[in-house]
Amino acid sequence: MHEVTQLLQRAAAGDDAAREPLFRLLYPELMRLARSHLAQAGTISLDPGGLLHEAYLRLPEGSNLPDRNRRVFYAYASKVMRSVIVDHVRERGAQKRGGGEALQPLGDTLADLLADESLLPAIDEAMLALESADPRAHQVVELRYFGGLTEETVADVLEISIATVKRDWRRARAFLFDYIVSA
Hints:
The structure is a single chain. The chain is mainly alpha-helical. It has a domain at 102-183: Arc Repressor Mutant, subunit A. Helix content is 73%, strand content 0%. It has nine helices and no strands. GO terms for molecular function: sigma factor activity.
């Protein structure tokens, strides 16, 4: 069993002494995830360290910590980071524009929509709808787009074929585009 997995399981079992060495080992990969998320999010006033530290504060304690293996943990951390970014954009948007304004999509492709920072709250809503409609496709988007993982790595993490990742990716992109454009 990998050292990270052992430390995850100890931390989930309530061993506080396992948390510090666990995050010391995870830190380089978590920073890579944070940089990837921020690159996808566009221009926002968070830096990778700030995003990582805010995400760390949101991680659950004890038995609620995902501990099956390091890949599951990275997927979960990626989701938490996306949540931090969306909350940050929502807060900034509320301060900047008084909040409550209807969002208007400016582009005609999913990539255009996802690159528009002002649409992050709508994207988050679309991601929640996708999670309800197709949980595995939601995971593929979380890992591939927001986490910056390759198709091969996503297939490995989710224990599915690369062809399934590609199908889920196409289906998820169509779902998200339709959801955001019709919002």
